[in-house]
């Protein structure tokens, strides 16, 4: 009887270890897929949009020079209106990659203050980004940098 209990315990421990080993080996790490080039471009586009947004709010033209093509800079600076304070929020909604250009659609919402007047606007703009590293080449549709109108 004592020998039988010992054999059952041993068998139970053996089966338990076998099941645990099987489960651990079958639940190993999954294969990690490399990040696609398109995903890297999209992330770079998101970062650039945030950099441009911060530069606009701070009225930092040097950052615009560094992050825009020559034509993009001229268009951007020509569109900027005077303001004392601005709050601007970008929400990326779509990224499209065509040839060597990245089209980043951003839903934006902003509040601009000039003197005692405050103005709220919202819209959907498309930032056209070119080059390596990406730089702003053009703004299509509603331009958040040309506010308040």
Structure description:
The chain is an alpha+beta fold and 149 residues long. The chain has one domain (37-146): Nuclear Transport Factor 2, Chain: A (Roll). The chain has helices at 2-26, 37-58, 61-67, 70-79, and strands spanning 85-98, 101-114, 117-130, 135-141. Strands 1-2-3-4 form a 4-stranded antiparallel β-sheet, with helices on one face. The longest helix is centred in the first third of the chain and has 25 residues, at 2-26. It is globular, with a radius of gyration of 28 Å. The protein starts with a helix and ends in an 8-residue tail after the last strand.
Counting structural domains, the number is 1
User: How do the SSEs run, as a string of H and E?
Assistant: HHHHEEEE
* Fraction in helix: 40-55%
Mean pLDDT across residues? 85
Low-confidence segments, given as residue ranges, are: none
Strand content: 25-35%
Q: Report Rg.
A: 28 Å
Count of alpha and pi helical runs? 4
CATH C-level name: Alpha Beta
Task: Write the topology of this structure.
Blueprint: H1 2-26, H2 37-58, H3 61-67, H4 70-79, E1 85-98, E2 101-114, E3 117-130, E4 135-141
Antiparallel strand pairs: 1-2, 2-3, 3-4
């Amino acid at each position: 009887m004592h020998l039988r209990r010992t054999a059952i315990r041993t068998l139970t421990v053996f089966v338990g270890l076998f099941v645990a080993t099987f489960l651990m080996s079958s639940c190993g790490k999954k294969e990690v897929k490399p990040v696609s080039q398109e995903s890297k471009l999209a992330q770079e586009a998101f970062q650039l949009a945030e950099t441009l947004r911060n530069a606009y709010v701070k009225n930092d033209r040097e950052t615009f020079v560094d992050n825009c093509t020559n034509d993009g800079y001229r268009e951007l600076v020509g569109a900027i209106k005077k303001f004392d304070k601005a709050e601007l929020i970008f929400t990326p909604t779509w990224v499209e990659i065509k040839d060597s250009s990245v089209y980043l659609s951003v839903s934006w919402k902003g509040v601009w203050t000039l003197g005692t007047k405050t103005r709220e606007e919202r819209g959907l703009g498309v930032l056209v980004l070119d080059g390596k590293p990406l730089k702003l080449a053009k703004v299509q549709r509603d331009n958040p940098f040309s506010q308040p109108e």
